[in-house]
Design brief:
Shape: globular
Mean pLDDT: 79
Largest sheet: none
Order of helices and strands: HHHH
Radius of gyration: 15 Å
Number of strands: 0
Structural class: mainly alpha
Distance between the termini: 9 Å
Helix content: 55-70%
Low-confidence stretches: none
């Protein structure tokens, strides 16, 4: 855990822009699933490198688990998207990782919007 205070730039805009780039890469279909997975892992690691709050890693893994259950569960129930490269029970490897990072970013954004000061 680091003691430096996060700036709005590192806490929201850098991860947001990075994930927009990620989804642009994914939508173009020119990057492999493995490259996109490593990219999602790197962006997620940067979330915790810039500023790591108590409980955010738990939140990340909770989002990863819930994302996995929802994506794979809905796929087997018949509500599915078609993924051209999907090696994790029919969904891409990077998708649950994106869910986990999304849980962390949405929580941070909600705290920032409400003006909450989170102390560790």
């Amino acid at each position: 855990m680091t003691s430096r205070a996060p700036s709005i730039f590192t806490e929201f805009w850098i991860p947001a822009v990075t994930f927009v780039l990620f989804f642009l890469f994914q939508s173009r279909g020119r990057m492999s699933e493995l490259f996109l997975t490593f990219f999602a892992i790197a962006v997620s690691a940067l979330l915790f490198y810039w500023y790591d709050r108590v409980g955010e890693r738990y939140l990340f893994f909770l989002g990863l688990f819930i994302g996995f259950v929802i994506e794979v569960g809905f796929r087997y129930l018949g509500y599915q998207q078609i993924w051209t490269e999907a090696s994790l029970f029919g969904v891409p490897l990077w998708l649950p990782i994106a869910w986990g990072a999304g849980f962390v970013l949405i929580t941070r954004l909600g705290a920032w919007i409400r003006g909450l000061q989170i102390t560790d």
